[in-house]
Amino acid sequence: MQLGLKLWSTNGDVLGQAESLIAKGTFQYVELMVVPGTDPVPFQKSGLPYVLHAAHDTWGPNPADPERLEVTRKSLEDARAWADLLGARFIVFHPGFCKPGFSAMENVLEFLKDEPADKRIVIENMASFGLDYGQVVEHAGYTKEQLELLMQDKFNFCLDLYHAMRAARSLGRNPKEYFDELLSLKPVLFHISDGDFSQTLDNHLGLKAGEFDLAFFAECIRSVPQALVTLETPREHLHSLKEDEGNAVIFRSLFS
C-alpha cells in the first residue's frame, strides 16, 4: 500500500526530511499542493514521486464560482505544467462551492465541459455543506450522481474519507451505504484524516485525535488495494515532519 505525505509547494525547507522518510519507506510519494507563484524546480530536483493538488479556494480558485473562472483555469493549467515537469501521477481537483441561491453543480459542469480528457485529474468528493462567504454554502461533488457527472468518463476519482463522513452525517445517510456508493466509483486515490462532528468548518485532525471510525476507513481502503492513500493530517510544527511520521505509524497499525 502506497502512503503519501502531504506538502505545499511553499514547504521546500522540509524536502530533505521528506526524502529521508521516503528512503526509509515511511512514505512512498508526496502529494504536493501547487501554491500559485511558487517554483517547481526544487521539487523537480528532489526526484521524488509526486501526486499534485491543484490550488483551491484558499488561494482564489473555485470552479463553481463564475467570478473566479479565470483564476481557476490558470491554476489548473499551472498544475498540469507542474505535473508534466515532475512526472506526477495524478492532479487532485476540488469541485468547489458557490454563493447561496446559485447552483454549484451547474457552474462547475460549465467549467469542466471545455476541459480535455485527462485521467491524471482526479475529482475529489466534498462535504455537502460548509461555511464560506460568511454563511452556509453548498458544495459540488458530494453524491455518487454528482461525481459521475463531474468525472464524465474524462477524469478519475479521489475519495476523501473525511469529507465523505461529514457528508454522510449532514445528509442523514447510513455511512456504510453512502461509502459503498462512492467506492463503486473506483477511486484511484484516498485522503485520510480524523475529525469530529462538533465543528462546522473543516477540521482535519491527526489520526486517533478525533471521533471518526478509523477501522471503517481502513476497511474502505482495503476494498481498493491498488489505490494510493494520502495522509491529510495537520502539522502544528511547520518545519518538522515528526507529526506526519507519527500519523504514518498509526495508519500502518490499522492494517496490522
From TrEMBL:
SUPFAM superfamilies: Xylose isomerase-like. InterPro entries: Xyl_isomerase-like_sf, Xyl_isomerase-like_TIM-brl. Residues 44-242 form the Xylose isomerase-like TIM barrel domain. This is Xylose isomerase-like TIM barrel domain-containing protein. It comes from Candidatus Wildermuthbacteria bacterium RIFCSPHIGHO2_01_FULL_49_22b.
